[in-house]
């Protein structure tokens, strides 16, 4: 089922043949994201326009996330708009936003070796190196799991946070930000999920954290990555400027779709 926005943008499930375009769209949105700068070991901010080795490497990582979510039966949604083609009167869809949701107990983990390999982890390691495995697979995922577990314990919930719907990635291309697309995509996923199951995610910027707070998510843990190695942008630094990058573990304990909000 598709959901239309007032701007004639449409939220719908993605098609497998669109995966390359989806990864390219995600790369455009996250080109300067501090957490992904750190994951990729970027020495400087990547160019917003242009095809470089580093931008292709980042896109490869998003393809890996996309394929892994697809292989575990995740919900992959995109927001599209109609654009004119060179043929008068003929339009085509352009992907401007998307979201990857992993189902309960299907979140990506290092022990899911067959899923990792089939999704392209070898190519990611070839491009980013094994140091990326330490940053993403251990430093980030270990803190993420610890943060979610701490949030559940503080709430008195004995169930594992792995039993939640997990937002692996959500983005809106820069040209379409500020139009309310991200909230619609989150509520679209909530409307399709079985009621009563928490939704979990990590916000990679303070701005996105604040938007999730307005959507009913609670901040339960702050993850710090690369302290003493990189600055707040995820670029190598030393001394007082090497503060590291932060992301925030967040939980919506009782998610409700948009039409159910008072």
UniProtKB/TrEMBL annotation:
<dbReference type="InterPro" id="IPR052523">
    <property type="entry name" value="Trichothecene_AcTrans"/>
</dbReference>
<dbReference type="InterPro" id="IPR016181">
    <property type="entry name" value="Acyl_CoA_acyltransferase"/>
</dbReference>
<protein>
    <recommendedName>
        <fullName>N-acetyltransferase domain-containing protein</fullName>
    </recommendedName>
</protein>
């Amino acid at each position: 089922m598709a959901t239309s926005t007032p701007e004639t943008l449409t939220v719908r499930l993605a098609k497998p043949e669109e995966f390359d375009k989806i990864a390219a769209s995600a790369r455009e949105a996250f080109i300067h994201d501090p957490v992904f700068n750190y994951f990729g070991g970027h020495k400087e901010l990547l160019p917003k326009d242009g095809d470089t080795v580093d931008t292709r490497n980042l896109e490869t990582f998003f393809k890996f996330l996309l394929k892994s979510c697809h292989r575990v039966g995740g919900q992959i949604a995109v927001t599209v708009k109609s654009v004119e083609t060179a043929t008068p009167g003929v339009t085509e869809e352009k992907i401007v936003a998307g979201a990857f949701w992993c189902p309960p107990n299907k979140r990506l983990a290092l022990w899911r070796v067959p899923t990792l390999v089939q999704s392209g982890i070898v190519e990611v390691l070839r491009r980013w190196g094994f140091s990326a495995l330490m940053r993403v697979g251990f430093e980030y995922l270990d803190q993420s799991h610890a943060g979610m577990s701490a949030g559940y314990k503080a709430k008195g919930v004995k169930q594992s946070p792995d039993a939640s719907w997990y937002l692996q990635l959500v983005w809106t291309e820069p040209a379409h930000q500020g139009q309310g697309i991200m909230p619609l995509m989150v509520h679209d996923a909530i409307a399709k999920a079985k009621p009563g199951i928490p939704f979990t995610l990590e916000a990679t910027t303070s701005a996105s954290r604040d938007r999730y707070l307005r959507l009913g998510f609670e901040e339960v843990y702050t993850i710090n990555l690369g302290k003493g190695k990189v600055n707040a942008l995820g670029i190598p630094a030393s001394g007082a400027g090497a503060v590291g990058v932060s992301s925030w573990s967040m939980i919506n304990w009782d998610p409700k779709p948009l039409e159910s909000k008072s």
